Amino acid sequence: MPYRPPIPHGKTPIPKQWFQSHSFVERSFLTESELRFRVFLGDEMTPLFGVKRRFGLAAVMCATLWTTHSEAIVVPLDNFSVTRNGADFFTDNFSDGLEPPSGPTSPTNYGVNGVIPGTAEAGGQLLLDSSLGILTANATDDARIFLGVTLLSDNTTNLSLGLKSDDTLILTGTFGLTVPVGPLISAYGIRFSDGGNQIAQLAVQYQPSTAQAEIRYLLQDFVANTITVLGSVALAAPNGSDQILLRLSRPNVANDDLFASFTYLSGGVAVGNGTFNQAAQIFQGEEWVRAQFFASEAIAVAAIPEPETYALMLSGLAFLASRRIARRR
Known about the structure:
5 helices; 41% strand; alpha+beta; Jelly Rolls; 16% helix; eight-stranded antiparallel beta sheet
């Protein structure tokens, strides 16, 4: 049976205006708690109980007003591999019991955005839990909790190393077939990233606009702040399917076309597949890419309360305080 994620949990949203005024890199390296303090305290990183009372009260009021939830997803990853110019470049079967950043060839094979517990890798699988990711945003500044693992291949101009513009490439990730649930986006998949400008992503995700789980191929452009959907199809696994293999491939060095496909597996045997015809364009301004796998979840962004809302709440608090003082007298 497909693996199903745990019950959704509560989180506090971040106002969209904050994402519009802070860089992608800056957002990515803050913990969720730090980011909340920066939002509510005007970027002052002083601990909450060390600031003036009026700021502390404002933070508490904001955190109380802006409540929402996101959809966590937990998914097992069975295999992650990269082929370069027809030869194996990197393969991880997650069989050594040493979770990322450790890999099969080095204790620092990977870079990790988020937390992967010491018990996550066992029995030839790596368990990804999106709720352990970092708070960040996609190319259109929609808030995400993102657990991402990046293969730290060479990112210099030396074309003989790493995954470069003169290479044919194949990236695959084989996941335990997991059905994402709504109402917000939750996803898992594989990506090629050039370090933050563009990301070509193939993922299994719950899509709110269609109210169903889908396989989606898209290109995120963090320079233009756009997301282009290159293909999508409903997740329709044949009976008996227990895995899904996601695949990104660049078959020809004469162009920058990157294609996406997927295969349903049952006991390791292919039982169904699909291909997206529209290609993403990679190596647009960079000579290198890095391979990633990830699990992520959306966060609903609440509107910033109007001043009248604060005034009404403050007057209510003042009234309650006066009543309490009157009782004591």
